């Protein structure tokens, strides 16, 4: 009969024997099942052109611009209302109304204007020179 002193030794021996069992099963790293899971993971997030257009036209999209004059603009493009709210570094917020642009964006209201195409934009604030900006977010 084991004594209390031999109990830790017997426990350690039992753990050692249990560890000598079968090797742990590893997940497959190649093969058709793995390739299929990879394809499903990539295509699950893919949206059609119509879905992307719907998202752009029917939601508010926030973009951050850094300008050459050191200003940071946070712009909420409210496409359903055809407006943009520009928040300047100073904390001032300005609501601009969408104008028809040949291409790109054009928003303006009483001395303020935001025009651009792609990630480039020009910001004109009332009483200040226009500055070039670049979308960073």
Automatic annotation (TrEMBL):
PROSITE patterns: PROKAR_LIPOPROTEIN. Residues 65-130 form the C-type lysozyme inhibitor domain. Keywords: Lipoprotein, Membrane, Palmitate, Signal. It holds the Pfam family MliC. It comes from the Bacteria. SUPFAM superfamilies: YdhA-like. InterPro entries: MliC (IPR018660), MliC_sf (IPR036328). Residues 1-18 form the signal peptide. This is Membrane-bound inhibitor of C-type lysozyme. The lineage of its organism: Bacteria, Pseudomonadati, Pseudomonadota, Alphaproteobacteria, Caulobacterales.
């Amino acid at each position: 009969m084991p004594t209390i002193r031999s109990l830790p030794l017997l426990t350690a021996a039992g753990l050692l024997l249990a560890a000598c069992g079968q090797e742990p099963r590893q997940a497959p790293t190649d093969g058709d099942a793995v390739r299929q899971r990879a394809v499903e993971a990539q295509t699950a997030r893919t949206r059609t052109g119509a879905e992307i257009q719907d998202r752009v036209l029917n939601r508010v999209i926030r973009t951050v611009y850094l300008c050459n004059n050191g200003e940071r603009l946070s712009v909420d493009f409210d496409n359903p209302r055809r407006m943009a709210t520009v928040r300047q570094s100073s904390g001032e917020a300005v609501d601009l109304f969408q104008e028809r642009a040949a291409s790109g964006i054009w928003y303006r209201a009483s001395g303020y204007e935001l025009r651009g195409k792609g990630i480039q934009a020009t910001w004109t604030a009332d009483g200040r020179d226009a500055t070039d900006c670049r979308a960073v977010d």
